Amino acid sequence: MSRLFGSVRARATLGATLVVAVALVAAGTAVLLSLRSNLIGEAGTQAERSARAVASELAARTPYDRLSGLDGDDSPVQIVDEDGRLVAASEDLRRITGTATADVTPQSPKPDDDDDSDDDSDDSGESLAPGEIAAETTFSNGSATVDGDTEDYRFAAVEVETDDRGRLTVHAGAPLAAEHGAVRTALTVMLIGFPLLFGVVAGVTWLVTGRALRPVEGIRSEMAAITASEDLARRVPEPATHDEIARLARTTNETLAALEASVERQRRFVADASHELRSPIASLRTQLEVAAAHPELLDLDGAVEDTVRLQHLAADLLLLARLDAGERPADARVDLSALAREEAAGRTGVTVDAEPAEVTGSRGQLGRVLANLLDNARRHARGRVTVTVRREGDRAVLGVADDGEGVAEADRERIFERFVRLDAARSRDDGGAGLGLAIARDVAVRHGGTLTASASPTGGALFELRLPLAR
Q1: 306 plus 400 within the same structural domain
Q2: pTM greater than 0.90
Q3: Which residues contact 72 (CB under 8 A, 6 or more apart)?
Q4: Of the residues 195, 225, 255, which one is the last residue of a structural domain?
């Protein structure tokens, strides 16, 4: 059960059914209350009409035994004097509730009732002249037994001032059987129709939701298959629609493509790193084995050179691993002009033209970038390397230019890839494993900047590092 209602399809169906149920119950309740109110109002209007008809006859001095409202029809009528005594009632009235008195048998008027009527006519209710009927009508609900039939009634009470019998109150009732019947019929229809409608809503929602989520299930099953097979070349199916599910499928495929490229890049990196490490290790081992057999042939300088090369390569690989892991640079202020002069010191043929420009980041990593750029320029320059630092808007620009042969336009992006060495300029004998520029660009990106290659004014290569100025 928990698994069933844990699905989006089941929750959507349940939610839609509950919303419709609440709306229909609220609407049905409103309809029943409105219907009941209208029917009770109609019964009240009918009762008031009957009460005023009897009151008009009383105002015209019609005797009680000649009143048309007391001739035995189905509507109960009572006439009560100002003392609360029943003076007239319908012929077939046997029981009554909800009016001023429960009496059904008229009582004889007091002997001096006519003498006191004028004095007491204004004791209660609104002031009325003889023969006048009160404008106000009061209503109540009750029941009555007329001619052996007991029903619920809506009673209307109307006061009339007579000049011969004082103030009288006429209570007339209208049956509520129509109201009860209509409400019961409407309630029965709702009790039968609403569950059927709920079932239709649930079924339609279940089918529509299942159809809408079918591509999601296809995406899920394909992702499960990709996970099981570890084949990142596979892609999830993309629906031929323009909705959120189609966008989800496209985004998933883009993520898979990026993941595949990342894994492939990582595999190439591991393979290249293994190859680059194998060469100095093999060379160092050979020298040590020769030295062990023939100590007089020990090439100490070569062994030291291979060891240093191996040390630099291990440091480069460690830094790349830290950058790939998302290591955040330090939040220190670094003056690029001072850093440029510091890195250029002791290097022959390097000139510095720098203005103060402070950036935020890791001094060690930025120094590594500048050192890599200077090493690269030294390997390619004919004799001169120029370092410049300037401000451009909200950016600091550090440029390293040489007067060498430059970099072909087709290779200006490729040289930033890891372990890439251009044929003439990237031999192992000339230095480097092809990681210096890759490290420099990764550090630049981690610092919110860019590193690009172009042609220098002297004809060689120009590398420009752009970083946000420190606030």
Answers
A1: no
A2: no
A3: 90, 91, 92, 147
A4: 225
